[in-house]
């Protein structure tokens, strides 16, 4: 288990992120992360879904429009206000995964993409205990965690190099990076039965480098990347496919875990 440090705490970091991004209102391709993996567990249309860490609402909006019963929570009040303003019909509220207001055995499904790794190990244990509590028996969870591998190590090295050149820098906990075995063990510790852990490419490693991006993506624009996907040039795609096909454990950037209660 490796810790990533930055110069902002998580609340400050996500406040800045969501202040600069509009509510997600674009079509989302369900053949790719994260919906590709949500679809593996969400089968019963009558089963209540919790999206923990709903962010700007793209997954929340997708399932609502398909007629599913879904509730979204996020600890950033600003992004919840944005969702409620643009999509007043969607159930989205401010909430803390470490202390949920919901009753025991309440949700059939839990989605948590990019949430738990923002917590230190103590808070991660607390949040998984709470998640287990609010899930129904035989309910399922699908969650993504930042992988502890070569790709994230290089990414953190680049970020830390930039941070070291910032005056008055202050290194604060940012994310946990976990290996497959560690991820499996912590879920089993809290009573979950792990069904699958998948190596997933959310943002391609080479997208970090301007040289390998598609021409229209040379200037980084996060909203555009979230809308269109992280597009690489022909050369970038060829090299990225080689890396992910032959070294998936080292060049995926997240692990997706599927588990049941």
Task: Give an overview of the whole structure.
This protein has helices at residues 10-19, 35-38, 58-65, 77-86, 121-134, 150-164, 180-189, 222-228, 234-246, 248-251; strands at residues 2-6, 49-52, 70-74, 91-94, 107-113, 135-146, 172-177, 193-200, 254-260. The chain is an alpha/beta fold and 261 residues long. It has a single domain, classed as Rossmann fold (3-Layer(aba) Sandwich). It has a seven-stranded mixed β-sheet, with helices on both faces. β2, α3 and β3 form a beta-alpha-beta unit. The longest helix has 15 residues, at 150-164. It is globular, with a radius of gyration of 18 Å. The chain starts with a strand and ends with a strand.
Helix content: 25-40%
Sequence stretches where pLDDT stays below 50 over 5 or more residues: none
Find the count of extended strands (DSSP E, 2+ residues): 9
Question: Which architecture per CATH?
Answer: 3-Layer(aba) Sandwich
Structural class: alpha/beta
Strand order of the largest sheet: 4-3-2-5-6-9-8
Q: Kindly identify the CATH topology.
A: Rossmann fold
- What is the average per-residue confidence, as pLDDT, rounded to a whole number? 91
Overall CATH class: Alpha Beta
Strand percentage: 15-25%
**Series of H and E elements:** EHHEHEHEEHEHEHEHHHE
Fourth CATH level, the homologous superfamily: Vaccinia Virus protein VP39
Give the biggest beta sheet: 7 strands, mixed
Number of helices: 10
Shape: globular
How far is it from the N-terminal to the C-terminal residue, by CA?
Answer: 24 Å
């Amino acid at each position: 288990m490796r810790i990533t440090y930055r110069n902002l705490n998580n609340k400050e970091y996500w406040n800045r992120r969501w202040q600069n991004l509009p509510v997600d209102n674009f079509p989302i391709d369900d053949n790719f992360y994260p919906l590709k993996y949500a679809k593996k567990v969400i089968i019963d249309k009558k089963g209540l879904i919790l999206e923990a860490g709903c962010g700007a609402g793209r997954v929340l909006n997708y399932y609502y429009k398909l007629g599913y019963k879904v509730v979204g929570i996020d600890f950033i009040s600003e992004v919840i206000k944005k969702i409620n303003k643009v999509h007043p019909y969607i159930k989205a509220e401010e909430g803390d995964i470490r202390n949920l207001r919901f009753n025991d055995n309440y949700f059939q499904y839990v989605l948590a993409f990019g949430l738990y790794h923002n917590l230190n190990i103590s808070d991660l244990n607390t949040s998984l205990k709470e998640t287990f509590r609010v899930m129904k028996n035989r309910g399922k969870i699908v969650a993504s965690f930042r992988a502890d591998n070569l790709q994230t190590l290089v990414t953190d090295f680049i970020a830390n190099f930039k941070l070291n050149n910032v005056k008055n820098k202050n290194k604060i906990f940012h994310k946990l990076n976990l290996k497959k075995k560690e991820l499996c063990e912590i879920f089993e510790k809290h009573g979950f039965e792990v069904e699958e852990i998948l190596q997933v490419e959310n943002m391609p490693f080479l997208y970090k480098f301007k040289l390998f991006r598609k021409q229209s993506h040379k200037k980084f624009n996060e909203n555009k990347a979230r809308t269109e996907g992280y597009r690489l040039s022909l050369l970038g795609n060829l090299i990225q496919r080689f890396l992910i096909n032959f070294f998936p454990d080292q060049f995926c950037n997240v692990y997706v875990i599927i588990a049941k209660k």
